[in-house]
């Protein structure tokens, strides 16, 4: 069943640059959909459009069959609690002045009146933070530290814990392992797979790393210069039918 449907979406800037050009795709519930392409191809711009951080020029975005491009006020507020994002640089995504426990509780406090959690429970702040840290395989002792006092891999796990804290339906993963070493990358990818299955999450996994996308995703989209140029199931990655640009990416993977 479709969770997210994008139809003929176009995003351009005053400079005349077309970042996303007439792009259409569907993401199904419970799926991890990969979006791969070189830097500057429009992947992150697309993510900002889906989150309503950036306005679109034309086209439609449907979430659970409801159009979201015209949402405002309370409707937009409700939509955003269903969709979270994990960025490439975890340290930049965390408030350096807040302890880990306060960063983790922030999303819950923001949306508490609208939440009906089924996996986590907010009996107390300390218990809630402990649950979240355990979910991303971090010790509860990190709760009282500041972001700069923990490693990059731990920082990214904290941002993942924050993203799942309000049990969203969809998480946009925007290059979530790009700033990590190889060992931390593998561990985070394994964790994300486990969380998707445990919490019944859906992911849009954005990356330039075809190996990571191939590990994580059931289907893969390939973007180049704002266009969607290839779309296929993971098992068909090495088929001869693949677009020449996809084959080029495979050759360096």
From TrEMBL:
SUPFAM superfamilies: P-loop containing nucleoside triphosphate hydrolases (SSF52540). Keywords: ATP-binding, Nucleotide-binding, Transport. Residues 4-250 form the ABC transporter domain. It comes from the Bacteria. The keyword Electron transport does not apply. InterPro entries: AAA+_ATPase, ABC_transp_ATP-bind, ABC_transporter-like_ATP-bd, ABC_transporter-like_CS, P-loop_NTPase. Gene3D superfamilies: P-loop containing nucleotide triphosphate hydrolases. GO terms for molecular function: ATP binding; ATP hydrolysis activity. One of its GO terms (biological process) is transmembrane transport. This is Peptide ABC transporter ATPase.
């Amino acid at each position: 069943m479709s969770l997210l449907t994008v139809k003929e979406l176009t995003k351009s800037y005053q400079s005349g640059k077309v970042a996303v050009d007439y792009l259409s795709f569907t993401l199904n519930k419970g799926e991890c959909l990969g979006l791969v392409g070189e830097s500057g191809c429009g992947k992150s711009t697309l993510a900002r459009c889906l989150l309503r951080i950036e306005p679109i020029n034309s086209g439609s975005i449907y979430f659970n069959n409801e159009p979201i491009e015209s949402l405002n006020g309370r409707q937009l507020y409700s939509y955003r609690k269903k969709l979270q994002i994990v960025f490439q640089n975890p340290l930049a995504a965390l408030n350096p002045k807040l302890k880990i426990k306060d960063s983790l509780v922030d999303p819950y406090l923001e949306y508490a009146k609208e939440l009906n959690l089924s996996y986590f429970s907010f009996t107390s702040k300390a218990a809630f933070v402990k649950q979240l840290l355990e979910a991303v395989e971090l010790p509860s002792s990190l709760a009282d530290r500041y972001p700069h006092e923990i490693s990059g891999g731990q920082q990214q796990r904290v941002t993942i814990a924050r993203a799942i804290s309000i049990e969203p339906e969809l998480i946009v993963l925007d290059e979530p392992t790009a700033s990590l070493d190889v060992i931390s990358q593998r561990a985070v990818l394994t964790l994300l797979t486990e969380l998707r299955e445990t919490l019944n999450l859906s992911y849009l996994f954005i990356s330039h790393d075809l190996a990571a996308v191939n590990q994580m995703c059931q289907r893969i989209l390939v973007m180049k210069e704002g266009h969607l140029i290839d779309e296929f199931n993971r098992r068909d990655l090495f088929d001869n039918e693949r677009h020449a640009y996809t084959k080029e990416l495979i050759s360096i993977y």
